[in-house]
Automatic annotation (TrEMBL):
Keyword ATP-binding carried by entry: yes
Location in or out of the cell: Cell membrane
Membrane topology, from the record: Multi-pass membrane protein
Residue ranges of every copy of the ABC transmembrane type-1 domain listed in the record: 16-298
A Pfam match: ABC_membrane
Domain called ABC transporter: residue spans: 332-568
Membrane-spanning segments: 12-40, 52-76, 130-149, 155-174, 235-258, 278-296
Stated name of the protein: ABC transporter ATP-binding protein
SMART domains tied to this protein: AAA (SM00382)
Endpoints of the signal sequence: none
Keyword Membrane belongs to the record: yes
Native organism: Carnobacterium antarcticum
Assigned keywords, A-Z: ATP-binding, Membrane, Nucleotide-binding, Transmembrane, Transmembrane helix
C-alpha cells in the first residue's frame, strides 16, 4: 500500500476529482430512493399529481448529474491508474539500468520481466478498483446506513446483526488468499523463465530432439500455476454463496418485519420501498468493497515484489561526483587484484593479479576454460568490483571515476555478440550517436564488416531482427567490433571476440586494428593462439592466477601450459 500511496500522491488533483465524483454519485444514488418515497407517500397515495411531477423532475435532474459524476469518475480513475502503472514501469526500468550483474543474479531476469509486466498490471487492476469501488463503497455504505436508521430505526437492527457475519467472511478469505497470491506470482516467474529459456534455446532443443522433454517441463510449471490459481479463484468464489445467503435472509426478514410495521401503522409503503432500496445499496456496496478487500492481498504481493526491485541499492554506485577527466589516456594497471563472486567469497576466481598496459600495447589473456579471463576483464568497466587490490585507469582507481566517465573510456566487445533490434547503422551508432556516415563506413571497414554490409539489400539500413538473429555469428561479431571502434575508446577489451571469424578475416582485422589502436590499450581474451601470438604481452592464467607472461616465442620456451595450448593449435613449423 505504501508503494501505491507514493505514486497516488503525484496525482492529487485527479484524486480530488475522483473523490468529488464518487461523493456526488453516492449522494445522487441515495437521493433517488428518498424522492421515490416522497412521490409514493405524498403524491400517489394522496392523489397529488403536481407533487409527483415536481419530485419526478428532481429525479431526472439527479439522474443526469449522477451520470456526469460517473463519466468524471471513469476519466479521473483511468488517467490515474494508467499514469501510475506507466510511472512504476519506468521506475523499474531505470532501477534495473543501474543494476550490476550481482543484482541481476539476485532477482533473476525472468522475475524482473514478470515484475515489470504482470505485477505492475496487478497493481493497476487493484488501483482501478480502489479508486472506483474502494472510494465509493464506504461512502455509500455509511450514507445508506444513516438513511436506514433515519427511515426506520426499529428495522435497522436486522442489518446490524448481519454485518459482523459478513466481515468475518471477507477477513477469512483475505487472510487465506495472501500466501496463495505469493505462490501464484512466483509460479508466474517460473513460467516466464521456462518460456524464455525455451525460446532462446529453440535451436539447441530441436538439435537434441528434446521438444517433448521441454514440453513436459513447461506443462509442469504451467500446471503449478493453474493449481494455485484454481485454489485462489475457488476461495474468492466461496464468498459469493456466503453473501447471497446473508442478503436473502436480511431481505426476507425486512419484508416480513416491515409488513408487520405497516399493519401496525408504524411505517408507510413508500418508506418500506426506500428502506429496501437503502439496505440493498448498503449490502451491495459492502459486497463490492469486499471484492476490493479480497483483491488487496494479491496486489500487495505484487507491490511488494515491485518495491523489492525499487529498493535495491546497486552494489556499483554511479559515483556522480567522481573523476571525469584525466591527463593521460589508455594506461591500465592491475595491482594485486583478487576477486570472488558474491556468495562465494571463500574461493576467489581471480587471485593477486598484477600487470600493466600502456597506450599502443596489446595484452592478451589465454588459459583453460574457467581460468578467469572473462571475469578479469569485466572488472575494468566495473561490472563487478574487485574484492582486494585495485585497478587504475590513467592513474585513477576505477571506483573513483564517475561510472559513466569510466565506461566512456572503454570499448567493450563481449564474448557473445549482442545486437539490438534496428538497422545496422543504428547498432553501430550505439558506440557514438552522432557519428558521421564516414565514421560509420570507416569503422565497418576496419572491422571487416563493410563487404557483407554492402552486399545486403538495404546496406547500412538493413534491419536486424531481435538479437541480430538474421546475421551470422561472424557478422554479429564484426558489427559489435565496429560498434566499439566507432567510439574511438582509450581502452579496447575484446572478450574472445574473434572466435567466429575465419583465419583470413581475423588476420586482416588484427592488421587494421593495429593501426587504429596506436593510442589505445588493447586487451584481448582469446582461445586461439593465432589471434594473439603477435601481442606485446601474453598473460597465461590458470585458476585465476597469472602463471606466466611474456611474448609468444618466450612463452613457448618458458610456460608448459602455454606450450600445451599452442601445440594443440599450431603446426610443428609454427611452433619451431
Ligand atoms: N556470474 C558468476 N557467478 C559465479 N561464478 C561465476 C560467474 N561467472 C563465472 N563464474 C565462475 O568463475 C570462474 C571463471 O569464469 P570465467 O568466465 O571468467 O572463465 P574464462 O576463463 O573466461 O572461461 P572461458 O574461456 O570458458 O570463457 C569459473 O569457475 C566460473 O564458473
Amino acid at each position: 500500500m505504501k508503494l501505491m500511496w507514493r505514486y497516488l500522491k503525484n496525482y492529487k488533483l485527479l484524486l480530488l476529482l475522483n473523490f468529488l465524483c464518487v461523493f456526488g454519485f453516492v449522494i445522487i444514488e441515495l437521493g433517488l430512493p428518498t424522492l421515490l418515497a416522497l412521490i409514493i407517500d405524498e403524491g400517489i397515495v394522496m392523489n397529488e399529481y403536481p407533487v409527483v411531477l415536481y419530485y419526478g423532475k428532481w429525479m431526472i435532474a439527479l439522474a443526469v448529474i449522477g451520470l456526469i459524476g460517473l463519466i468524471g469518475l471513469a476519466f479521473a480513475g483511468s488517467r490515474i491508474t494508467s499514469n501510475i502503472v506507466r510511472d512504476i514501469r519506468n521506475d523499474i526500468f531505470m532501477s534495473v539500468q543501474s543494476f550490476s550483474h550481482r543484482e541481476f543474479n539476485q532477482i533473476g531476469v525472468s522475475s524482473l520481466v514478470t515484475r515489470t509486466t504482470n505485477d505492475a498490471f496487478q497493481v493497476m487492476v487493484f488501483l482501478q478498483m480502489l479508486l472506483r469501488l474502494g472510494m465509493m463503497t464506504p461512502i455509500m455504505f455509511i450514507s445508506s446506513f444513516v438513511m436506514i436508521v433515519r427511515t426506520s430505526p426499529s428495522l435497522s437492527y436486522v442489518a446490524l446483526i448481519a454485518i459482523p457475519f459478513l466481515f468475518a467472511i471477507v477477513w477469512l478469505i483475505g487472510k487465506k488468499s495472501e500466501p496463495l497470491s505469493e505462490q501464484q506470482q512466483a509460479n508466474l516467474d517460473d513460467i516466464n523463465q521456462n518460456l524464455r529459456e525455451n525460446l532462446t534455446g529453440l535451436r539447441v532443443i530441436r538439435a537434441f530432439v528434446k521438444e517433448s522433454f521441454q514440453e513436459s517441463r513447461f506443462a509442469k510449471v504451467n500446471q503449478n500455476y493453474a493449481s494455485v490459481s484454481k485454489k485462489l479463484f475457488k476461495l474468492m468464489a466461496l464468498a459469493m454463496p456466503g453473501f447471497s445467503i446473508a442478503f436473502n435472509l436480511i431481505l426476507a426478514a425486512i419484508v416480513w418485519l416491515g409488513a408487520v410495521e405497516i399493519q401496525n401503522g408504524g411505517l408507510q409503503v413508500g418508506s418500506l420501498i426506500a428502506f429496501i432500496e437503502y439496505i440493498f445499496h448498503a449490502l451491495f456496496s459492502f459486497m463490492l468493497f469486499a471484492n476490493v478487500f479480497m483483491m488487496y492481498p494479491r496486489a500487495a504481493v505484487s507491490a511488494e515484489r515491485i518495491e523489492e526491485v525499487l529498493q535495491i541499492e546497486p552494489s556499483i554506485d554511479e559515483n556522480e561526483t567522481g573523476v571525469t577527466e584525466t591527463k593521460t589516456h589508455g594506461y591500465i594497471a592491475f595491482e594485486n587484484v583478487t576477486f570472488a563472486y558474491p556468495g562465494n567469497t571463500e574461493s576467489p576466481v581471480i587471485r593477486d593479479v598484477s600487470f600493466t598496459a600502456d597506450p599502443g600495447e596489446t595484452i592478451a589473456f589465454i588459459g583453460s576454460t574457467g581460468s578467469g579471463k572473462s571475469t578479469l576483464i569485466q572488472l575494468i568497466p566495473r561490472f563487478y568490483d574487485v574484492t582486494k587490490g585495485r585497478i587504475l585507469i590513467d592513474g585513477v582507481d576505477v571506483r573513483d571515476y564517475q561510472l559513466r566517465a569510466l565506461r566512456k573510456k572503454i570499448g567493450f566487445i563481449p564474448q557473445k555478440a549482442l545486437l539490438f533490434t534496428g538497422t545496422i547503422s543504428h547498432n553501430m551508432r550505439f558506440g557514438k550517436w552522432n557519428a558521421t556516415t564516414n565514421e560509420v563506413e570507416e569503422a565497418s571497414d576496419i572491422s571487416q564488416a563493410k563487404d557483407f554490409i554492402l552486399s545486403k539489400p538495404d546496406q547500412y539500413e538493413e534491419y536486424l531482427a531481435e538479437g541480430g538473429s538474421n546475421m551470422s555469428g561472424g557478422q554479429k561479431q564484426r558489427l559489435s567490433i565496429a560498434r566499439a571502434i566507432i567510439k574511438k575508446p582509450d581502452i579496447y577489451i575484446f572478450d574472445d571476440s574473434f572466435s567466429a571469424l575465419d583465419y583470413q578475416t581475423d588476420a586482416r582485422l588484427r592488421e587494421r586494428l593495429k593501426a587504429e589502436t596506436k593510442e589505445s590499450a588493447v586487451l584481448i581474451v582469446a582461445q586461439r593462439v593465432g589471434s594473439i601470438r603477435h601481442a606485446d604481452k601474453i598473460i597465461v592464467l590458470d585458476k585465476g592466477v597469472i602463471v606466466a607472461q611474456g611474448k609468444h616465442e618466450e612463452l613457448l620456451k618458458t610456460s608448459d601450459i602455454y606450450y600445451a595450448i599452442a601445440s594443440s593449435q599450431l603446426s610443428k613449423e609454427e611452433l619451431a
